[in-house]
Amino acid sequence: MSAERVYRLLLRAYPRSFRSEYGGEMMLLFRDEYRSRNAAALGFWTTMVCDVARSATSMWVEEWSREGLHSNR
User: Fold this and answer.
1) How would you label 44-64 residue by residue, b for 16+ Cβ within 10 Å and e otherwise?
2) Over 70: is that where the pLDDT of 72 sits?
3) How far apart are CA 36 and CA 42, in angstroms?
4) pLDDT of residue 40
5) Whole-angstrom Cα distance, residue 36 to residue 38?
6) Which pTM does this prediction carry?
7) Distance (Å, whole) CA 67 – CA 39
8) 52-64 pLDDT tens trace
């Protein structure tokens, strides 16, 4: 499985609305990082997975907060 395919799978952790707006840019940034760093190293992938886990969680919290605000109207 290619590195880009793995990263695309990781991006599925984000809400769909976020992916549709920023997914393309995130792939471009990933490609740049992948080329400029030792992407085969465990550290690279650990950083990618941790970043996605942290930021996707905050995106879901934001999404749920917005939905909660809209349902109270």
Assistant:
1) eeeebeeebeeebeebeeeee
2) no
3) 15
4) 73
5) 7
6) 0.79
7) 37
8) 999 999 999 998 8
CA distances (Å), 20 to each of 1, 26, 36, 39, 57, in order? Answer: 23, 11, 26, 25, 17
> Strand locations in the chain, DSSP E?
none
67: tokens are 């939905």
Q: What distance lies between CA 35 and its chain's CA centroid?
A: 18
56, amino acid identity:
A
Q: Which helix (H) or strand (E) holds 57?
A: helix 42-71
d(CA 67, CA 36): 39
> Confidence band (pLDDT; 50, 70, 90) for 41?
confident
